[in-house]
Amino acid sequence: MNDKGKETVPDGFVRLPTGLGFTDNLQPCFRRIEGDAVSFGLVVERQHGNVMGICHGGVLVTLADVTAATGVNVARGVRAGSPTINLAVDFIAAARMGQWIQADVHSVTVKRRFGFCSGLITSSEAVVARFNGTFYLPEHKGMVKPGAIGDGLPALLDD
């Protein structure tokens, strides 16, 4: 925790670049990819909050979606778009202002044209949410088009 009462970003996390479209709403947001282990996280700040002064559910859903899709792509060993077919998020506890929340992938299965991923979002105090996602894995390359949002994003697997 820093001198302003905010929790700090754990070691090994790298800040996401901007220019990723809707995902920019999570900023400042961080990721850590070590082997097959995929984690994203952020310190809950005012822009992430709702009128009750806790983290907005939309932030948690977006964090779950980005984490799960990345988990599927890392398991496949590719850098590509994987459109979300279904995403279920169960909200379990509140994430409070100043808390570090972290989404971790726990399970990934890839079958033909589909990827399945589950994980948890946790804070320093509790499990905040659990998530399960299903993603379409297109046969063609090029889900990241030149000039599209995110084009030029450093490859996740080049680290």
Task: Give a quick set of tags describing it.
single chain, 159 residues, mainly beta, Thiol Ester Dehydrase, Chain A, 1 helix, 7 strands, globular
Structure description:
The protein has 159 residues and is mainly beta. About 5% of the residues have low confidence. The protein is globular and about 50 Å long. 30% of the residues are buried. The chain starts with 13 loop residues before the first strand and ends in a 23-residue tail after the last strand. It has a domain of 110 residues: Roll (Thiol Ester Dehydrase, Chain A), CATH 3.10.129. It has a seven-stranded antiparallel sheet, covered by helices on one side.
What is the strand and helix layout of this fold?
Layout: E1 14-15, E2 30-34, E3 37-43, H1 57-76, E4 84-91, E5 100-111, E6 114-122, E7 127-136
